[in-house]
Design goal:
alpha+beta, four-stranded antiparallel beta sheet, binds 2-acetamido-2-deoxy-beta-D-glucopyranose, signal, Rds1, Protein rds1
Length: 471
């Protein structure tokens, strides 16, 4: 294991930003030519973090030594409801300057703008746990992008309408993940989570692309959910510059599916525990000594009629068409041309964009759901346990773009099945809130939450989230 990064951690505060950038390409150039061609520009680049190259993808059969989320020595009973502090509303916001400028062309205010030296580290438990979660995510992406290329041949990709150049782009995405994992490891220091072994639900290229599209969506959304809450603005800056790359990956996987590339006006954010709930089931085991996480695993939520191109006609009909809870990847029979959830009209592989904006779903659509009860062992070494602090299931929360909307849940007699109706709300006029690859969860009540306090929904989550492919 390369722990030069311990050095990197302190160095990060002193060296230019470039010292945090990946050197993978430079390193390859160096090793492939032993001559003096090894460019001088690669000399100062720090190494990428090492990781196992190929672990088996099979589910974990053992029993866990440790169970449950990481906890502190003292745990409170809940976040009290607060109020708006007066200082929040005193700035006149009238287009004029109200304070002396500290320098020419420099308005007063801002955080980290007064000449203090930035230190790119974690500054609280919140920072560490959020960044560690993001690192778990980068590690699975690195493995996932390589796994699809290993498991499916060029021929398989071709049959799904994808070229060898498309494969090369996925291979490059894996390299990007090496860089992201290195960056976050350098920020976290010696106990930064290591790469684990994973288990995936897909059986063919279409399901693989759908899974990757959905996994990158919750990776992206999981980071947007906490970025602005980090104590470390320095870490937030570097993470922003990583997650925007991941957002591009997500968009490209949509294009690989023939979906309209970005039907939404705003990208959604979700709480850390939502991202961890979606991620953990795909981690089979982690190495001994692995740093554990504080986040909650909610009971799994399955969509029984996930919107997809395969569900033409009345897509409200019950289909049992997903291969996994949580991500709710659409099942595609081998040899089928149709993409996992491609937009109607473009079901033959990749498109840059399409004029066919016929949505995959519609307001008024009946959505059938099935969920688990708490107490299931999930995640690495089956060592986390699903929990919920919520009471009776009553609503479905639709978390999309900037909005959280609740619809009533009709629970069937069984108690863990039910249905709801897709809502008809807009963010701004002309922009339906429920669109793109978004999130739903079952809740016991309908608290008002907005993008900056969304995590206050957590005590009300009965099950989920599930990824809903609205468009
Ligand atoms: C800059 O702001 C920080 C945080 O408010 C403060 O701790 C520091 O003393 C200020 N001044 C300088 C020159 O760093
Ligand atoms: C689909 O084909 C792959 C090989 O490309 C195979 O591993 C998998 O089991 C097949 N899935 C089904 C459902 O037949
Ligand atoms: C998880 O299981 C693997 C494989 O059995 C084992 O090598 C590893 O030490 C376990 N990890 C932890 C954190 O207990
Ligand atoms: C679709 O089917 C559901 C029952 O599965 C029915 O309630 C609904 O009215 C149908 N919608 C349309 C548009 O046909
Ligand atoms: C749904 O599909 C899964 C696997 O495809 C199968 O095991 C299960 O029995 C099906 N359930 C229903 C209610 O059709
Ligand atoms: C999603 O956005 C597209 C493009 O604006 C639009 O055509 C479509 O109707 C929207 N989908 C839904 C479910 O509203
Ligand atoms: C309800 O039905 C689901 C799916 O068939 C099943 O997994 C679950 O155990 C049932 N729950 C109860 C409380 O009977
Ligand atoms: C959706 O979010 C926007 C932007 O925050 C807000 O103005 C609007 O009122 C919200 N709509 C609903 C239905 O909550
Ligand atoms: C979340 O913030 C909104 C304002 O954006 C506020 O109206 C709401 O009460 C807050 N929710 C909770 C649960 O505190």
């Amino acid at each position: 294991m390369i722990w030069k990064s311990i050095f990197g951690l302190s160095a990060l505060g002193l060296l230019p930003l470039a010292s945090a950038l990946p050197n993978d390409i430079a390193a390859r150039a160096t090793s492939s030519s032993s001559s003096s061609a090894a460019s001088s520009s690669s000399v100062s680049a720090p190494p990428t973090r090492s990781h196992p190259s190929s672990l088996a993808h099979s589910s974990y059969k053992g029993t866990a030594l440790t169970t449950g989320a990481l906890t502190a020595s003292s745990v409170g009973t809940g976040i009290p409801s607060g109020s708006v502090s007066p200082a929040e509303t005193t700035y006149p916001s009238d287009g004029k300057l109200h304070n002396a400028e500290p320098a020419p062309y420099v308005p007063a205010g801002g955080v980290g703008t007064n000449g203090s030296i930035p230190v790119y580290n974690a500054k609280s438990d919140f920072d560490y746990e959020s960044l560690a979660l993001a690192l778990y995510q980068e590690w699975i992406e690195l493995d996932l992008f390589q796994d699809g290329l290993r498991r499916f041949s060029e021929q398989d990709f071709k049959a799904a309408g994808l070229t060898s150049q498309d494969r090369n782009l996925i291979a490059f995405m894996a390299e990007q993940e090496v860089g992201h994992a290195t960056l976050i490891s350098n920020i976290l220091g010696a106990e930064a989570p290591q790469q684990c072994a994973y288990v995936y639900p897909y059986t063919n290229v279409q399901e693989y692309i759908d899974f990757a599209q959905k996994l990158t969506r919750f990776g992206e959304a999981g980071v947007y959910g906490f970025l602005a809450h980090l104590d470390s603005r320095e870490a937030a800056t570097l993470l922003t510059q990583s997650i925007t790359t991941e957002a591009r990956q997500q968009l490209i996987f949509r294009q690989f599916q023939g979906l309209f590339p970005m039907p939404e006006w705003f990208e959604v954010g979700i709480p850390q525990s939502w991202a961890w709930t979606l991620l953990a089931p795909y981690i089979s085991w982690c190495p001994q000594g692995q740093t554990r996480l504080v986040w909650q695993n909610f009971p799994a939520l399955k969509i029984l009629n996930q919107p997809s191109v395969g569900s033409s006609g009345n897509s409200s009909a019950f289909q049992n068409n997903t291969i996994s809870s949580g991500t709710n990847v659409v099942k595609v029979p081998n040899g089928s041309k149709a993409s996992g959830s491609g937009s109607s009209g473009s079901d033959c592989g990749a498109t840059v964009t399409t004029d066919d904006t016929t949505p995959l779903s519609f307001a008024g659509r009946q959505v059938a759901l099935q969920w688990e009860t708490p107490g299931k062992a999930v995640g690495p070494n089956n060592s986390y346990v699903t929990t919920s602090q919520a009471k009776t299931a009553k609503y479905v929360a639709w978390v999309s773009q900037l909005n959280v909307t609740y619809t009533p849940l009709r629970v069937s007699s069984n108690g863990t099945r039910g249905y709801t109706i897709q809502p008809d709300t807009e963010v701004y006029e002309g922009n339906p809130a429920v669109n793109g690859t978004m999130f739903i969860a079952i809740t016991d009540s309908n608290p008002v939450v907005t993008p900056f306090n969304l995590s206050l929904i957590n005590p009300h989550v009965v099950a989920g989230p599930a990824i809903y492919q609205a468009g």
